[in-house]
Amino acid sequence: MLHIEEVLWRWLCDSCAPNFEDITEPEDYNAGLSLYGDKAKPKTYAARFASSDGSEVLSVLVRPSNQLKITFLEAKDIADLGSLKEAARIFVPGGSTLYSARTFKIKEEEGYRNYYFYEFGRDEQHVALVAAVNSGKAIVAGATAPQKKWEDDGVRLRSAAVSLTLL
């Protein structure tokens, strides 16, 4: 079984154009001491790559699913967070224009894993993202660019987001 970091690295290596560079923040080992010992600052992004001008970004977030939707049970599948429409409230910011939303399934050894795809615009940004759940963690892979650049690079960026597969 691959670790999530290995899956993310493979996805980014396969998805990024050669001119994209790693802009992931380094881990903060000096988060400070508390009465309970050292506490590491949680990283905002598990992985983040940007085009040379910084306008196009591929990023991955990993969060415990119970931070997205309060539940006593560990989410095993994205559908545990709600239907495609219900989960849009979690993944699509308010005030956005939703262009597309769909569910797709990928066959695995134990059955099928569900993925939710959303494409939306907010302000002058265009976003495509895919969300899935693995072992109680929600993994969100997204691609974003200014609307003007999306017209030229949208197919490549959308493909990068949709190519995320959890192993």
Automatic annotation (TrEMBL):
Recorded GO CC terms: chloroplast
Alphabetized Gene3D superfamilies for the sequence = Mog1/PsbP, alpha/beta/alpha sandwich
Name of the molecule in the record: Uncharacterized protein
- What is the organism field in this record? Sesamum alatum
